[in-house]
Design goal:
The complex is a heterodimer.
Chain A: H1 4-25, H2 41-48, E1 56-59, H3 64-73, H4 80-87, E2 105-106, E3 109-111, H5 118-131, E4 138-143, H6 150-161, E5 166-172, E6 175-176, E7 179-180, H7 189-194, E8 199-204, H8 208-225, E9 229-234, H9 250-257, H10 261-265, H11 271-294
Chain B: H1 4-18, E1 22-26, H2 43-46, E2 51-53, H3 58-70, E3 74-78, H4 89-102, E4 112-117, E5 142-144, H5 152-161, E6 166-171, E7 190-195, E8 201-206, E9 215-220, H6 223-238, E10 242-247, E11 249-251, H7 256-265, E12 267-275, H8 280-291, E13 299-305, H9 314-320, H10 324-336
Parallel strand pairs in B: 1-2, 1-3, 3-4, 4-6, 5-6, 9-10, 9-12, 12-13
Antiparallel strand pairs in B: 5-11, 7-8, 8-10
Classes of the chains: A alpha/beta, B alpha/beta.
């Protein structure tokens, strides 16, 4: 039975975290840029509700949602505080302020900001799990924009050829920064996988239970058969690509918001459960940002 | 007498035998072919599970190896021709070399990328280059080049043992060359002083310290062969005494041995096979300018390839790449001032 409360709480944590983050840019507490996951929360929450804590994850530039959901699925629970500290460039951040938004590492979670380049690395991680006979799998994330990168196809070829336990999660949010998928992707997404003999599961849904069911099947297949699978999730981001670079039709965004994953899932909880989730998440985020803000900045004095 | 090729091949056998985490990846590396330059010969027969022949996918070869390294294996990737390092640049610069520091020293990337560089075999513009200069100074990356003086196999073993990524640059013409022995042949008058660890470099200085050397030659890899020949001719025909500083680790690099030698000779000639502009020698000279106490009293010149693609035709290729003659010519000019 799916834990409806946990799924809702994870999605809400991602939503409120990203909202707080976007708001903090105007306060001057954050510099640089960010890529918000708002609208896509069902994917991360659904997927990481069915993975094993020992599985290895390589995420991309839009990694906060993946990280928070990964953390929520770990035995120790999530750690929004160290993510907030990292985003503020603090010494206590996940990687001591060296990486920032797109470049984080915690336990078996890694992310990097180069489109496509992470995919062969994740493929190599799957190979390591296979030869070390750990029973763990690798998961990696790409967007519709990444379909333009050649490194993806080198990775799919090798993953299939060498029968590697890796799940390629395609989050198609229909825009590569500002470029709509119609201007960037010829053919089909599934065709890209089937060309290499890789099976796919495809869902066009922001219902976390549907995503969870598909992820359960996909993750189970990778683990059971030791072969790659493509999980293609059609979705939509409600916020801009990064902070303010949005040229999409507001009416289109409004239509997408009608399928807000939180709105879809909320009715499965009681009023009391929703209120509890809101207050827990609010407290966790307030605590995370307050502690992070008070933390020291790093310096280079310890460098070799 | 062992060759560079045999030394490298033996060290791979030894590394794979002693450490089950060592894997080889590359194009056409399976027996009976054993790799385009035969460095991996015999390994797929001895260790069939750990020698992985790959599609022609250089970015993925290094990316996959990098992922393996992040997860505790010790992969050695072969890029068939050094010219193809342009295809792995993203994986080296933005992934493998960056992970350790970017993730706050919480990970290690014990990855070796071996590749043959260099010309003089008539392979033309895309199979003859020395492109290592593009990777010198990349943070987190060690660039190492074997030569005939140190044991190339020991350098490769040190690269495999290194917890950081190593770009291991093998000049094609070195493979068939015998390893040199100190106190023999043209080395007989030299005292050989090692420096640096674990990638040992060398200063070659006349055993008789009363001899006043006129010139320091700085070089690495195959150009040590040319520099040694030039030094011999300069001594025999012109009575010009040369010290040689032979680097095995190109990046990051140690400057002090070169400073010491320059203090004795006040003349430095750098020799490299990559293109002249913004190359290895340029950085050497810039560092010396910053560090040397009497830089203004010293004289410098760089010998390198012309800033042109490497031509296929022999007279054109010979004119583009440095030679014993161009080294001697540059040395004589330096010694006249």
């Amino acid at each position: 039975m799916p834990d409806n409360y946990a799924l809702f709480r994870t999605m809400l944590l991602i939503r409120r975290f990203e909202e707080r983050l976007l708001a903090e840019f105007s306060t001057g507490k954050l510099v640089g840029t960010t890529h918000a996951y708002i609208g896509q929360e069902a994917n991360a929450a659904g997927i990481f509700s069915v993975t094993d804590p020992g599985d290895v994850v390589f995420s991309n530039h839009r990694c906060h949602g993946h990280f928070l959901a990964y953390g929520a699925s770990s035995p120790e629970g999530s750690d929004p505080y160290r993510l907030a500290a990292e985003l503020m460039g603090k010494a206590t951040g996940l990687v001591g302020g060296r990486g920032g938004s797109q470049h984080i590492h915690w336990r078996n979670f890694y992310s990097n900001g180069i489109q496509g380049g992470i995919l062969p690395v994740a493929t190599g991680m799957a190979l390591a799990e296979k030869v070390n006979k750990t029973g763990k799998i690798a998961l990696t994330f790409l967007g519709d924009g990444t379909l333009g990168e050649g490194a993806l196809y080198e990775s799919l070829n090798i993953a299939s050829l060498w029968r590697l336990p890796i799940l390629f999660v395609v989050e198609n949010n229909h825009y590569a920064q500002t470029t709509p998928i119609e201007l960037a992707v010829a053919g089909t997404i599934t065709g890209r996988f089937s060309a290499f003999g890789i099976t796919t599961l495809e869902r066009d849904s922001t219902d976390v239970l549907e995503v969870q069911a598909a992820a359960l099947e996909a993750v189970g297949s990778v683990r059971r058969n030791g072969r790659p699978v493509g999980l293609i999730l059609h979705t939509y981001r409600f916020s801009a690509h990064s902070k303010g670079d949005d040229v999409r039709d507001p009416a289109e965004i409004a239509r997408a918001r009608e399928k807000d994953p939180l709105l879809i899932h909320a009715p499965r909880l009681t009023d009391a459960e929703r209120a509890r989730a809101e207050s827990e998440v609010a407290a966790a985020i307030a605590d995370a940002f307050a502690r992070a803000e008070a933390d020291p900045l790093p310096n280079l004095k310890d460098e070799r | 007498m062992s060759t560079v090729l045999e030394s490298l091949n033996t060290s791979l056998h030894k590394a794979m035998h002693t450490d089950e985490r060592v894997y080889l990846l590359g194009e056409d590396i399976l027996d009976p072919y054993g790799g385009a330059f035969k460095v991996t010969r015999g390994l797929s027969t001895a260790f069939p599970e750990r020698v992985l022949t790959t599609p022609i996918s250089e970015a993925a070869i290094v990316g996959v190896a990098s992922g393996m390294a992040l997860r505790g294996l010790r992969p050695v990737a072969e890029i068939m021709f050094g010219d193809f390092v342009t295809l792995i640049a993203d994986q080296i610069v933005n992934h493998a070399a960056k992970f350790r520091w970017m993730y706050n020293d919480q990970v290690r990337v014990p990855l070796v990328v071996r590749t043959p560089m260099g010309g003089r075999r008539g392979y033309g513009p895309t199979h003859s280059q020395s492109l290592e200069k593009m990777f010198l100074g990349v943070p987190g990356l060690h660039v190492v080049a074997p030569n005939t003086l140190g044991d190339p196999g020991q350098l490769l073993e040190a690269a495999i043992a290194d917890d950081d990524p190593v770009l291991f640059v093998e000049h094609k013409l070195l493979y068939t060359r015998p390893l040199l022995e100190a106190d023999k042949g043209d080395l007989v008058d030299y005292e050989i002083q090692p420096f640096g660890a674990p990638f040992t470099s060398y200063v070659l200085r006349f055993t008789n310290h009363a001899v006043k050397s006129h010139l320091t030659l700085a070089c690495y890899g195959y150009n040590f062969e040319l520099a040694r020949q030039a030094a011999l001719e300069l001594l025999m025909e012109r009575e010009i005494f040369c010290e040689i500083v032979l680097f095995s680790q190109l990046s990051p690099f140690a400057l002090d041995p070169l400073l010491d030698s320059l203090a004795r000779t006040h003349r430095l000639l750098t020799v490299e096979e990559g293109g002249l502009t913004l190359g290895w020698g340029a950085e050497i000279l810039a560092r010396l300018a910053e560090r040397s106490n009497d830089f203004s009293r010293c004289h410098f010149h760089r010998v390198a390839a012309l800033d042109l693609p490497i031509a296929n035709s022999k007279p054109l290729e010979d004119a583009i790449l440095p030679s014993v003659e161009t080294i001697i010519h540059a040395a004589l000019e330096l010694c006249e001032v």
